[in-house]
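User: Hi! I'm working on a homework problem where we have to compare a predicted structure to a textbook description. Could you give me the structure for the chain below?
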Amino acid sequence: MWQTLAIASVFFPGLFALSVRSLGWAAPAWSLKDRILLSSRMVSSVQATMATVSGIIVVLNCKDVVHDRYWLAVEYVWVIVPYMIYDIYVMYLCHWHKSKDTLEKKHSLASVRSFLEKDRLMVTHHLFILVVLTPVAQYLRGELGDFFVGCIFVAELSTPFVSLGKILMQLKMQDTLLHKVNGILILVTFFLCRIVLFPFMYSAYARHTGIPIYMVPFHIPMHCNVANASLIAPQLYWFMLICRKAVRLYSSSPSDRNR
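Assistant: Happy to help. Predicted structure tokens:
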């Protein structure tokens, strides 16, 4: 636990700093803001890939969805904890650099307040994972449900595509075929891994216990239902936003999208 926490606490900030420095060497014409934005998205993709691979390994190694154990289901949570703390700070850093021209030139309570107002849903999501889901995953569930923890890890599959979309827009490549294909991949992976994932988990439990799927919420601990509901609610909101962007992307001309 402590070793994993220590390594992850150094790894993500270190990778971010290395990326910012490397981009400074490779693209000296880029501003610090551009390098920070791109680096944050690259690190996000790295973490998402690690989580997805870990989740797939856990799911494949848990044939009994309730009782089977696999060490990554516990250990990778201790990677997520420092990443979430790091990501909140980097989100603030990105917000400050993007709004520096219109806000204040220095970090202040006003800039923090502006960040919390603009990104309150994402910050709340991260804090919920830290304060609620971590104790549930590591302590309250006992030695049951590694399979479902692995499923939650797999939800990160859509993140690299979301990050790639933002990178392409940052590079002014939003009118390319790559951006359109990536948009389809975002829709598909987000829908499957962040929306359909939850009915899939309830279905897996129903098959395991031999009960109808609609009875599953009454057979599992209440904190599991609350955690799942709290997780899927923002995903539905974000998926709605992604669908709106997709409509604009595929139904408008390049000149319309650039307005």
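For your comparison, note the following. Residues 44-251 form one domain. The chain has a mean pLDDT of 87. Good luck with the assignment!
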